[in-house]
Amino acid sequence: MRLSRVLRAGAVVTALALSVAACGGGKKADASDSLVDKASSAKKLTVGIKFDQPGLGLKKPDGSFEGFDVDVARYIAKELGVDAANVTFKEAQSKERENLIKNGDVDFIVATYSINDDRKKSVDFAGPYFIAGQDLLVKKGNTSITGKESLNGKNLCSVTGSTPAQNIKDKFSKEANLQQYGKYTDCISALLNGTVDAVSTDDVILAGYAAQYPGKLDLVGQPFTTEKYGVGLKKGDTKAQKAVNDAILKMENSGDWKKSLETNVGPSGYKIPDAPAITEK
Amino acid sequence: MDYLSKYDLLGAFWVTVQLTVLSAVGSLVWGTLLAAMRVSPVPLMRGFGTAYVNLVRNIPLTVIITFSAVGLSSTLGVVLADKNEHGFFEVNNFRLAVLGFTLYTATFVCEAIRSGINTVPVGQAEAARALGLGFGQTLRIVVLPQALRSVVAPLANVLIALTKNTTVASVIGVAEASLLMAEMVEKQADLLPISALFALGFVVLTLPTGLVLGWIGRKVAVKR
């Protein structure tokens, strides 16, 4: 009864959404408007990145950008024939990523974007260009947390509604308390003042924060999930997928991949993993 | 939308309703007290009421809610639940959110009630004072009952705004409707239908509120 009512409401909404989508005119990506052609003809690209993740995608107060995702985005753009100066960065918050690509607001997305099957229904991925895993960040000197086995009675923090927060809810809700905040910086301040014992999200993101507070935070280093970061592309643009994969491979083989990681997240003591194999073809 | 059955939609909206009702009761009480202060003959109370209203209503709600958790609770150590109990954060955050919403919404309730007080002819208060009633009695017995009856519709507006404002509680991790929405969007990558569904949920909550309170407002209005 309860469910059927929800489903009925859902049906109405779906009908509504479909009619909205129909009005919007679903322009399919065909061979002629591939990312590759656009890059070589227009000589400029718009790329979606995170603006608020130190070490990965960060907009600095002076308006410039830095981070591993930024470097990857610039490298891909360069391989597609677009200078770094002609790359415009646009903020791609997690929940907006699919729509940004679908609507053509960005040409591709490099924003700690984990490849998964639900997302693949609306976008295509290239890569992965990095494999992260959910890990724990603790205060320096905290030896009581050594991994996911030692969370009994501990207080964890993660970002509201994010995949790591949902993982904790699903897997460790019996042992640990979960505090969700809107931003990771709130979690970090709660960690620094001792309200929570650990902050949990992808290890490379944590490493970016640890690098911001040198000597104060420690990465536990026992990841318990696998998050494959891919480059988000318009659905059906196989030409772009191939070109981006080639660019990622080239970046990995040239050593620029490792160098970028070392400068951006290296200072945290994070052990840089090997470059992953391309799986999205 | 076949994934809907995996999520507890009604549970999330129930938390929204609880947040709304508790904050509404709290802000009605605190807002009425503030309005009483703002019309009181004591300069100190008037000053406090004016300062409070003008300060608090001009702070963004997100800042108030974040401060209640990050500042008040996490840094200053004010806790509203048993720290050693499992699920401490959920209870504590919920109560902090109710506190934050109450403090914020009370300013709007106060101003609505104060405008209602202004609709009561001055002669009535003067007559009450002439009969020997004190300030408190005048307000309680003569002025406020008439004032409240004339501000049901504006208070309904405040209540509807409060219902939607409760979505801000997700920034401190209260598991209400917008937090579930964030989770569903993250997992299902289906922003438009999910947003539409939650928008519909809020319309279902607020539309009857407006209609019923509008009707009550017309029934009880003081005909002058």
UniProtKB/TrEMBL annotation, chain A:
Residues 1-24 form the signal peptide. Keywords: Signal, Transport. Residues 44-268 form the Solute-binding protein family 3/N-terminal domain. It holds the Pfam family SBP_bac_3. SUPFAM superfamilies: Periplasmic binding protein-like II. GO terms for biological process: amino acid transport. It comes from the Bacteria. Residues 260-281 are annotated as: Disordered. Belongs to the bacterial solute-binding protein 3 family. This is Solute-binding protein family 3/N-terminal domain-containing protein. It comes from Kutzneria albida DSM 43870. The lineage of its organism: Bacteria, Bacillati, Actinomycetota, Actinomycetes, Pseudonocardiales.
TrEMBL record, chain B:
It is found in: Cell membrane. One of its GO terms (molecular function) is transmembrane transporter activity. The chain crosses the membrane at residues 12-37, 58-81, 191-216. Residues 13-213 form the ABC transmembrane type-1 domain. Its main location: membrane. It holds the Pfam family BPD_transp_1. Keywords: Amino-acid transport, Cell membrane, Membrane, Transmembrane, Transmembrane helix, Transport. InterPro entries: AA_ABC_transptr_permease_3TM, ArtM/GltK/GlnP/TcyL/YhdX-like, MetI-like, MetI-like_sf. The keyword Ligase does not apply. One of its GO terms (biological process) is amino acid transport. It is a multi-pass membrane protein. Belongs to the binding-protein-dependent transport system permease family. HisMQ subfamily. NCBIfam families: HEQRo_perm_3TM. PANTHER family: AMINO-ACID ABC TRANSPORTER PERMEASE PROTEIN YHDX-RELATED (PTHR30614:SF37), MEMBRANE COMPONENT OF AMINO ACID ABC TRANSPORTER (PTHR30614). This is ABC transmembrane type-1 domain-containing protein.
